[in-house]
Every structure is written in structure tokens, then in C-alpha cells.
Amino acid sequence: MTKSIALARIKVAIIEDERDIRESLAIIINGTEGFHCTGSFRSMEEALERIVTAPDVALVDIGLPGISGIEGIRLLKQRYPDLLFLVLSVYDDDERIFDALCAGACGYLLKKTPPARLLEGLREVTEGGAPMSPEVARRVIRLFREIRPPERADYHLTPHELRLLELLARGHSYKSAASELGVTAHAISFHLRSIYDKLQVHSKSEAVAKALSNRLIKPPY
């Protein structure tokens, strides 16, 4: 019988550019029974190069140099579909939170989170939960409350616009979405303006949330 994650040590990889934070997290994880840090990386590029066997959870910062944490989550998710992601960030704005969750993050904690709560969040992720700092949870709930569908949603989005929304919901950047669609970044901007106008929203996160809540596109995972 295979030993469950709950009984085995939870293997965690850390992706964080600030050395002091990275080393402190490794000490906390390795110093706690039931947890093991399999590697700590200062950039997403380093993580993509050096992670050979996926851990259980990747603890990811968003504001990384080079490839961002959000784009990195999408890339690692493609490579390791079963890898779980928990964001640990100083950012608590709607756009980054929504983009991280769309990219594949299972939870979103702020860096001021106490160590005990962070460890609890790591375990919660492996058990199917979605840990979030209270401020983050309130923003997510408010975002979906504000973007409620009318009784009959008919926004006349073109197949191309729907495809773009699906790519954004999966965590694609404007550049990678343009590459997938075979168009220029200027064309993406044009389509986004059309989407915003049709959905009566003002940002990418609002557009994706409204498309999901209206079931115009499928959830990314």
C-alpha cells in the first residue's frame, strides 16, 4: 500500500530570489517534522533547470527576476502536472492574485504569514485545500461577487476572443498568447479592447472572471 503524503514527509521546493527569506524558509521546513526541503532556487530559470524529480509542493514567490513566478507556475505545471503550487508573496492586488490562481496556484499566502500558518498551508495544499491569507480570500470573493452574470448573458464574443480568454485563464502572458494564436502583441491589445468593451470590464482579471462565471470558457484546471 502506497504511503500517503499525510503520513510521509511533504517534499517542498522553494523558489525565492531573496537569499535571507529563501534560507529562512528552508530552515523552517527542514526543522519541522513531516517536511523536507528538496531544493531552494533563486530564480525560476534555475528551478526549471535543476528540478529533475518533482516535489509535492513548490513554494513560489511572484516577483522573481527574469521569468515571473506566475509564468513559471504555468511552465512547471506543463512539465509536472501533479506538482502543487503555493504562492508566497508580498503582493495582494487583484491582478496578480487572479493571474496566479489561473496559472495553477492552489493557494496564495502573504509573506507576513507566521511560520506555523505557512506549514499548515503547505499541508493543506497536499490534502486538497486552497489556503489563502484573509486579505487575499476577501479580494477573491469580492472579485467574483462584483462580476455576476445577468439573467441572460449574450456578449457576442468571437471564437478568436474566446480563445484568447481561455489562454489568459490558463495563465498565459500577452506575449505567449500572441505566440499561441499566431498574431502580434498589437493584435492582442486590439482584441482585449474589444473584449473589455463587450464584457463591460476594465482589466484582464475582470474579463477572465466574468467569462468563467458566465461559463463562456472552461475553467483552466
Q: Can you give a write-up of this model?
A:
- By secondary structure, this protein is an alpha/beta fold.
- It has 2 domains: 10-136, 3-Layer(aba) Sandwich (Rossmann fold); 159-213, Orthogonal Bundle (Arc Repressor Mutant, subunit A), CATH 1.10.10.10.
- It is built from 10 helices and 5 strands.
- Strands 2-1-3-4-5 form a 5-stranded parallel beta sheet, sandwiched between helices.
- Strand 3, helix 3 (69-79) and strand 4 (84-89) form a beta-alpha-beta unit.
- Helix 3 packs parallel to helix 4 and helix 7 (159-169) crosses helix 10.
- The longest helix is centred in the C-terminal third of the chain and has 15 residues, at 185-199.
- The radius of gyration is 18 Å and the shape is globular.
- The two termini are 28 Å apart.
Q: Could you give the order of strands across the largest sheet?
A: 2-1-3-4-5
Query: What's the CATH topology label of the largest domain?
Result: Rossmann fold
Number of beta strands? 5
The residue-averaged pLDDT reads 88
> What class do helices, strands and sheet pairing give?
alpha/beta
Please name the fourth-level CATH homologous superfamily of the largest domain. Response regulator
Q: What share of residues is helical?
A: 40-55%
Major sheet description: 5 strands, parallel
CATH C-level name of the largest domain: Alpha Beta
| Rg of Cα set | 18 Å
Topology as a string of helices (H) and strands (E)? EHEHEHEHEHHHHHH
The tally of structural domains comes to 2
Q: In DSSP terms, counting alpha (H) and pi (I) runs of 4 or more, how many helices?
A: 10
Unreliably modeled segments: 1-6
